[in-house]
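Sequence only, no structure available. Ideas?
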Amino acid sequence: MFRSLRLSPEKTVSVTVNGQKISAPEGQTVWATMALCGETMTRQAAISGEARSAYCAMGVCFECLVEIDGMANQQACLRRAREGMNIETQNLTIRSEASTDDL
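Reply:
I predicted one. Tokens follow.
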């Protein structure tokens, strides 16, 4: 479904996306890198658990939050892929009820 507009990238970087090592054009966004390797889900919605992905792709909507190198809540559409980067789909969990221990 997605393809890169760069036909022959001058330089590539090696990144890991959800455990899969891939090569990506240097300077490409994290979201574009994920999409080109078939990983379009960036996170799960906190309440419903539904899959989310880039919506605006320009940093306004915050739908593309991912975990990069162990740091959560990184916008995949604004970050550039760099050598050795570890990108993971962000899985959020919400407690449905407060426990009595919290009171």
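The chain has a mean pLDDT of 81.
Hope that gets you unstuck.
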